[in-house]
Amino acid sequence: MAETIRAFVTGFPIKHSRSPLIHGFWLKTDGLEGSYMAVETTPEAFPAFVSSLQENGYAGGNVTIPHKETAFALCEAHDGAAEAIGAVNTLWFERGRLYGGNTDAFGFAANLDEYAGGWDNADTALVLGAGGASRAIVHALKSRGFSHIHIVNRTLARAQAMADHFGPGVSAHGWSAAQDLVGTSGVIVNTTPLGMEGHGKSELALDLSKADPSTIVTDIVYTPLETPFLKLARDAGLKTVDGLGMLLHQAVPGFEHWFGVRPEVTGELRAHILADM
Ligand code: ATR
């Protein structure tokens, strides 16, 4: 009998991760003999966990907060997205070497491809926030040909560091610039936790009535599915895309690496995850 393929998601803490639900759903619907488990590792324990993956029978797994940058440093090779972003969320073995990839940019673009086809015909984007998720999204926007990417952040220095990293076409602004940038941006993305359930009362206060009617607004927050920011956009008559699809699509390449089958993001999967929220 073939050995069961094992994969994991690790982070600290890890109990809120929805990845086991997603991969568990695909293992079941594809009828595969595999396992996908959440494993909590502290920052101190993480390097030893990674160096003993093969001994422990893992084909690979996902890495989440706070290990994404450490994982990048521990990998022997990287995919192009991980190189550009400087962080790894997916590990697998190829010809005996530990590879690190970053699938967040893919997940972001695939979600918009699914729900807002043609989104990448725009050339200007406004990205709110300058954390880890924002880096992946700026990489996705650059890869899809956006020539003007404006990063707005509470802490200007962080946005500036990102703009310097990504080079021409990417610029940094303080929060006060956001309103003026609304009118010229074909895509507006929230990457901050503002509007997330349990994250306090502060919300994104932007007047979206000044946006061009063809503007697409998306949020990486998916609890609630329609964030106050997406509601503002919908009320302004704009096309909105929620963040759940990014979570589902970013899981696809990892599953294919470990289990050898490219899984599908279906309405059934979406319903399965929503039922748990
Ligand atoms: P992630 O990896 O999920 O992107 P992160 O690296 O902690 O998370 O980044 C969170 C982003 O949300 C940052 O841009 C942060 O702004 P700062 O760089 O100024 O900290 C932004 N953010 C978090 N809370 C915020 C708030 N209350 N108002 C405005 N921006 C906020």
From TrEMBL:
Alphabetized SUPFAM superfamilies for the sequence: Aminoacid dehydrogenase-like, N-terminal domain, NAD(P)-binding Rossmann-fold domains
Annotated binding of NADP(+), by residue: G129, A130, G131, G132, A133, N153, R154, T155, L156, A157, R158, I220, G243
Domain (Quinate/shikimate 5-dehydrogenase/glutamyl-tRNA reductase): residue spans on this chain: 123-192
UniProt key word Chaperone: no
Signal peptide stretch: none
EC number: 1.1.1.25
Domain of life, source organism: Bacteria
MF (Gene Ontology): NADP binding; shikimate 3-dehydrogenase (NADP+) activity
Classification via InterPro entries: Aminoacid_DH-like_N_sf, NAD(P)-bd_dom_sf, SDH_C, Shikimate_DH, Shikimate_DH-bd_N, Shikimate_DH_fam, Shikm_DH/Glu-tRNA_Rdtase
Stretches assigned to the Shikimate dehydrogenase substrate binding N-terminal domain: 9-91
Binding site for shikimate: S17, R18, S19, T64, N89, D104, Y222, Q250
Catalytic residues in the record: K68 (proton acceptor)
Pathway where it operates: Metabolic intermediate biosynthesis; chorismate biosynthesis; chorismate from D-erythrose 4-phosphate and phosphoenolpyruvate: step 4/7
Keyword field contains Iron: no
A Pfam family: SDH_C
All residue ranges annotated as the SDH C-terminal domain in the record: 243-265
Gene Ontology cellular-component terms listed: cytosol
GO BP annotations, alphabetical order: amino acid biosynthetic process; aromatic amino acid family biosynthetic process; chorismate biosynthetic process; shikimate metabolic process
NCBIfam families: aroE (TIGR00507), PRK00258.1-4 (NF001312)
Family membership: Belongs to the shikimate dehydrogenase family.
Quaternary structure (record): Homodimer.
Name of protein: Shikimate dehydrogenase (NADP(+))
Organism: Phyllobacterium phragmitis
Gene name for this UniProt entry: aroE
